[in-house]
Specification:
With 171 residues, the chain is of the alpha+beta class. It has 2 domains: 35 residues; 118 residues, Double Stranded RNA Binding Domain (2-Layer Sandwich), CATH 3.30.160. The chain is 29% helix and 30% strand. It has a 6-stranded antiparallel beta sheet.
Length: 171
Amino acid sequence: MRLSILFVRPLTALIPLLVAIPLVLLAIWLVFLKLPAYDRWGLPTGAVSIESLRTHPEAALAYPDAVPSASSVSAQVDHTFFEPGHYNPVANSTMTLFTQISSAQVYTWYDRWLRARGWRRVVAPAHSPMLLSQWSYDRDTREEYSIAFSKASVHSGRRQFTTRYSILPYN
């Protein structure tokens, strides 16, 4: 009987240590690794990776009857990891699409979709003389979305337009 008491007491003394050690290790991991923080729209407060960009529906948002012809995605490179020629402060997803629908119908569809999700239309001048028209939106201070039809946009009765979703650096 005496022998069993000797084994039970050390084990009961170890229980708090067995609980405390993993908690301390978790706290150290959280502090030093700085798990990514997110803002209220689910955007990382650090650099935005391609994987993170793709989690947002706006990155692949396409008018239902449009046919995609090209797309590109670029990650945001954090300024703390600056290498000459590799600094990219904005994460972008760009798509070029074709549709037989009028630009007014396309703009109306995007306008309804975006406004229903907290976006607001902003007045932005067309960035290129090649653009026929462009509608731009923003959400808070970090997200931008644009839809643009180019002047040379009619091919075989189809109109070409480009969408761009951008996430700006966290300030």
